[in-house]
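okkk here we go again. third time trying to get the flavin-adenine dinucleotide bound version out, last two times i messed up the smiles copy paste (missing a bracket lol). double checked this time i swear
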Amino acid sequence: MLLPKFDFHEPKTMKEACQILAEYGTKARVIAGGTDLMVNMKKKILSPKQLVSISRIPELKKLDTSGDGIRIGACFTVAEIISSDAISKQLSALCEGAKNLGTPLIRNLATIGGNIGSARPAADLPPSLMAYGAQVVLNCLSGERTVSLDKFFLGPGFTAIKPDEILTEIRIPAPNPRSGAGYINIGIRKGQDCNIVNVASFIELDKNGIIQNARIIMGCVGPTPLRAGSAEKILIGQKPGNELFSRAGAAASSESAPIDDIRGSAAYKKDMAGVLTRRTLDIALNEAAHRQ
Ligand SMILES: Cc1cc2nc3c(=O)[nH]c(=O)nc-3n(C[C@H](O)[C@H](O)[C@H](O)COP(=O)(O)OP(=O)(O)OC[C@H]3O[C@@H](n4cnc5c(N)ncnc54)[C@H](O)[C@@H]3O)c2cc1C
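finally!!
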């Protein structure tokens, strides 16, 4: 399969990149690692006439853990997430998602910004990022805005990014003491395949061990990663335990809205959404018990 023809731009600053996007509008497309976009271009799903590579802009590759949160540059690669001690210590569920993404070759090229920007309902990083309460920073010539990931995904392949905007950074609040998160994905086989269901859960306990905050995000069971709001409500104000987590799992399963497809039946995915919710809550509780 041949790629359609395009012009390739390699700006070295954000200003230059934003100027190119402003000039070409919907004819242009940002490219980071290219592992998703190139496939879509070969399949003729997308045919941008202008490709704007952002991989030579140094500020997009930064990781900053010096403030009260974690700021990850959009071009930070999946392999870099895995090898970062700061991320594996503070954001273990994100690290778990990264370890499960693709093959070593893909992980070396694929970026966190591209994983979010591709807006695939089965992507590995959005569920844990949403569970941690992440926000994305979007930049264009006229300035910057911040959008919660909860409101960012609009449908398969569609996001809140405007044609002249670049996702520059992901901001994640530093997890509090007594908080923890878990991520599990299931696929048909390792590496090359798309997930069947993936779930991330986050909980935060108060000093008496009661759940004061919970976020559960399910992938592959709707057009965007879905928040299991009624399952979260079941958890808040309660003491964690097997029976509570089973009830939350059942609620999450009811909230999921998967479709039958080549990877699995809707009924199987619904069941698995419940099972993975329960299991990721167990992982989150274990981490919360050890994070003081
Ligand atoms: C063999 C193979 C296996 C894969 N396995 C997995 C897997 O297991 N799990 C998974 O989640 N994904 C998987 N993928 C999909 C893909 O590798 C990931 O989604 C990857 O993170 C995309 O990142 P990228 O930097 O390559 O994005 P690109 O391909 O460069 O871009 C993807 C999309 O996001 C937009 N974009 C990228 N960066 C920005 C930005 N900073 N601002 C605005 N828009 C932006 C682009 O315009 C494009 O629409 C796989 C792909 C392949 C080819």
